Structure to design on (84 residues):
């Protein structure tokens, strides 16, 4: 099974779902296989319905497979909370 690192940065209230050592900063996360972004952020503890926007290289993307997202971004994915 293939493994890669994905880089994430969560903002706003999404940090409340993360462990203290991952809050308010970018971090890398080991991803095995090719899960979706939805599955990956939920594995990190963040419920996917709470995510309003995912940016990769300044572009809005959807819940793509992680390996596809990695091909789009040398920088961390930016995940923003919903505004409801």
């Amino acid at each position: 099974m293939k493994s890669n690192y994905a880089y994430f940065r969560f903002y706003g209230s999404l940090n409340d779902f993360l462990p203290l050592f991952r809050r308010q900063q970018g971090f890398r996360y080991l991803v095995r296989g090719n899960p979706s972004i939805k599955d990956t952020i939920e594995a990190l503890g963040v419920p996917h319905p709470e995510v309003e926007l995912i940016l990769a290289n300044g572009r809005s993307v959807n819940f793509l497979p992680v390996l596809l997202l990695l091909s789009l971004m040398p920088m961390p994915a930016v995940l923003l909370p919903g505004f409801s």
The CA atoms of residues 17 and 46 lie 5 Å apart.
